[in-house]
Amino acid sequence: xxxxxxxxxxxxxxxxxxxxxxxxxxxxxxxxxxxxxxxxxxxxxxxxxxxxxxxxxxxxxxxxxxxxxxxxxxxxxxxxxxxxxxxxxxxxxxxxxxxxxxxxxxxxxxxxxxxxxxxxxxxxxxxxxxxxxxxxxxxxxxxxxxxxxxxxxxxxxxxxxxxxxxxxxxxxxxxxxxxxxxxxxxxxxxxxxxxxxxxxxxxxxxxxxxxxxxxxxxxxxxxxxxxxxxxxxxxxxxxxxxxxxxxxxxxxxxxxxxxxxxxxxxxxxxxxxxxxxxxxxxxxxxxxxxxxxxxxxxxxxxxxxxxxxxxxxxxxxxxxxxxxxxxxxxxxxxxxxxxxxxxxxxxxxxxxxxxxxxxxxxxxxxxxxxxxxxxxxxxxxxxxxxxxxxxxxxxxxxxxxxxxxxxxxxxxxxxxxxxxxxxxxxxxxxxxxxxxxxxxxxxxxxxxxxxxxxxxxxxxxxxxxxxxxxxxxxxxxxxxxxxxxxxxxxxxxxxxxxxxxxxxxxxxxxxxxxxxxxxxxxxxxxxxxxxxxxxxxxxxxxxxxxxxxxxxxxxxxxxxxxxxxxxxxxxxxxxxxxxxxxxxxxxxxxxxxxxxxxxxxxxxxxxxxxxxxxxxxxxxxxxxxxxxxxxxxxxxxxxxxxxxxxxxxxxxxxxxxxxxxxxxxxxxxxxxxxxxxxxxx
Length: 681
Description:
Its main location: membrane. Belongs to the transpeptidase family. GO terms for molecular function: penicillin binding. Keywords: Membrane, Transmembrane, Transmembrane helix. There is one protein chain. With about 675 residues, the protein is α+β, with helices and mostly antiparallel strands. The protein has a domain at about 70-105 and about 115-255: Penicillin-binding protein 2a (Domain 2) (Alpha-Beta Complex), CATH 3.90.1310. The chain is built from 21 helices and 23 strands. Strands 2, 3, 4, 5, 10, 18 and 19 form a seven-stranded mixed sheet that branches. A hairpin with a 5-residue loop joins β8 and β9 (about 240-245). α4 (about 115-125) packs across α5 (about 130-140), α11 (about 255-275) packs antiparallel against α21 (about 600-620) and α15 packs antiparallel against α20 (about 520-535). The N and C termini lie far apart (about 105 Å). Mean pLDDT is about 85; it is low at about 10-15 and about 625-680.
């Protein structure tokens, strides 16, 4: 039986309901008070807004309207020019105009404006009036339709003359021409088309420089757009404010237009007569590191850089995939002188002998027996490395080793130098490291040179005559220039100064002495040895094709078999300088895979001689029948040629402000990082 006392009594539940009812009534009273307060606040706010609307609406309307942008347009900056060292413009930006139609204005102006506007556009801009009618019909509410782009000034001026004419009939006709205006922009143009194309580079949309100087100095060449604003002032007057565009800086290069033309003439001539996969030429001032000319082949027209028709048929281009077309364009755009690596061949021999002399591993009176080659262990077995003259030169002096380009003698010299010192001088000469030239895409070839773990006796021997490791043209000309200028390695560069539009110099690029390579005594001996390489009439002499009547020319030929060996593909080259007594100019010619007789090193040698024959008189370096010292005067490039570096009392060079260390002894690398290389700015 259930115990009733276990359940709560009903009077207790009634008591709880009373308490809940009492709590609810109190809460409703509080909510009512809050509601009344909010209602009063809203009424006051509405009243205030009504008062403002009735008494001050005009004032606030003017403030709002003054903040609105009624007429705003961008003012484009002018990209800076690229000039040669004498101020000749190589790249510039010319103002062009886009023809803009405003259909809304045409269709909503007083009078019948469609026909007069369409007829004016047809007459002055050559656009069929039916095209204009279609634009008006299809876009009646549009305020912006571009009908034509990149119109020149003369075309626009003819139309503006008509609109502003004082002739009565013209005024009557132009009164109903509405809704036409012009956007201004700049078009990048290159007055000399393909001249120095890979060095100058070009721009793509948005003033973005790519390749060459256009790419490297893009930020300096670009400016900042301005803007013109139209708005209503707080007095309801229409006002304009203009923020002027800031134009870009001009880049004045070290290139001499006339020397560049001379070089490109002979590069083109070789292409027409014999052909090659690639040809590169650099002309430099050995005393400063300035590049006076840089040309390569294949090349392209800077005003139409994507045009491949010079190298491919229409059918070939049409059948190219996107990747194939891109690769073809890159092959044309790439600067062979800076971006391609190759084995130097025998142009390396003077640098090897210079290292041996400075390390006292050989003397100028030493002789070597050339019996046609050396048998060397290559890590697997014995391999015979022949001299280029396989019958052997016999007893060969140190000078004749250069004159006759004797591989056998150089292998013996390399063995005397040893791995440690050979690698030391490779670093001194800058091999395996980018030079820091102010051009994009420079190959450093870090992975294509020897180090302590990869250079054995076989590699030591072959590297002595320039095989087994790769370098670039700009690396070689910088190293070679240090030999002919007395042992000073200057950073190669292609820009002389940055200027404002008015010509004020913002930044000058002086010569930068990076380090010293060889002693002056060694350099003097090497210069004379290379002079005899060109001047001597001996049966084995290799550089005679570079002779120029009346001048003392020095230089060295190079022939390097490409990898894989045995395919019959070669890189041939010549690097020379003049005059021997006071070198003012260095010329380096490299030909990759001549289409006929690929081992013919006389082709680059003759080209170098032809270039020097025209360049030397242009620089007012006059002939003296090959005897004595040449006189120089009146340099057309406004530069003091042949200036020797200033020296301290002990004969060490005084560096300019861009060089960090003031005293660099011969054969000493500025090596702050401890990795065997100098870091360039």
